[in-house]
Amino acid sequence: MDAAAPVLVEVGTEMGAREMIKAMADQGLWTSSGGKTPDATLYSAITREVGAKGDGDRVPE
Q1: Distance between CA atoms of 8 and 50, rounded to whole angstroms?
Q2: What's the rounded Cα separation, in Å, for the pair 51 and 33?
Q3: Where in the chain are the domains?
Q4: Which of 26, 30, 35, 27 has its CA nearest to residue 3?
Q5: DSSP characters over 1-60
Q6: CA atoms of 45 and 19, how far apart (whole Å)
C-alpha cells in the first residue's frame, strides 16, 4: 500500500491491481517477493484498508 498510494495519486485515474503492480515495479517503488499473485495480494490490501479506514484511507477517489 505504501507504494500503491503514490502511483494512484500520480496517475489520477482508476487502475487495476495488475496495472498498479507494473507501475510500482517500473518506478522502482516495489519489487516482487516471488509470490504467484501479487495483484491479488495488493487488491486484498486495498480492500482491507478501505474497509477499515473508510474516508481516511490512502486510496484516492
Answers
A1: 14
A2: 25
A3: 4-56
A4: 30
A5: -TTHHHHHHHH-S---HHHHHHHHHHTTS----S-S-HHHHHHHHHHHHHHHHGGGSS--
A6: 15
Under 8 Å between Cβ of 8 and 15: yes
Helix axes 4-11, 17-26, angle to 10 degrees: 100
Could you state, in chain order, the average pLDDT of each consecutive group of 10 residues for the chain (61 residues)? 86 90 93 91 88 69 60
Contact 60, 8 (CB under 8 A): yes
The pLDDT score that the predictor gives to residue 39 is 93
